[in-house]
Amino acid sequence: MAAAGGESSSQSVSDELFQNFYTEVKQIEKRDSVLTSKQQIDRLLRPGSSYFNLNPFEVLQIDPEATDEELKKRFRALSILVHPDKNQDDPERAQKAFEVVDKSYKLLLEPEQKKRAVDVIQAGKEYVEHMVKQKKKQLKKDGKPQDVEEDDPDMFRQAVYKQTMKLFAELEIKRKEREAKDMHERKRAREEEIEAAEKAKREREWQKNFEESRDGRVDSWRTFQTKGKRKEKKNRSFLKPPKVKMEQRE
Questions:
Q1: Chain segment 10-32, per-residue pLDDT in tens
Q2: pTM for this entry
Q3: Which intervals of the chain are annotated as region Disordered (predicted)?
Q4: CATH number of the structural domain 30-109
Q5: Nearby residues of 182 by Cβ (< 8 Å), 6 or more positions away
């Protein structure tokens, strides 16, 4: 019973940590929401952004549980902030940042894509919770205090953030691998199709040339035979037997 109570207590602490995580995320969002246009552009285009920006909630700095209306408001505010028209001193980078924001917003408008992103975040949280539980279990087995760094809400938040980014990155790598494989298969199929078409073309041309040359060969053979017969007939006309002279008797 004590063990069960311990697990329940651990789960309760974990839920509390997770709630603290989102509370802190909201505080960060509130702080970052007043970033200048340049700061937002720098955030969206920072080194490693190709992977950081895979999480649409991270891009828009909004809670996964936000309503559609809240999502719409956040998109409008952030898109205006990084829009090229508002950043004419650096329009190219502003355009790239705007495209990142626009892509994330459109992705979250699709229920299936939004669910996928939420599931990845949830998977990251569950993984960290599992690891924390395993660490505490091992410490208990070793007879040591069951204190881990993830007990600190800040450290727990960072662990979830890192694991979430890792999961998004792994999914993106797999997607690119599938895409590359599909492209290779399409290219190979196209090459085989072209090769088959060329082979069929060569066979048609060969057959056509054979038919045309056959007619010529037949005509030549007939002409040859006709000339041969005429020559043979002519030669026979000159091969007359010699006349036999009668001997005269005295």
A1: 555 555 555 554 454 445 445 55
A2: 0.60
A3: 133-154, 175-250
A4: 1.10.287
A5: none
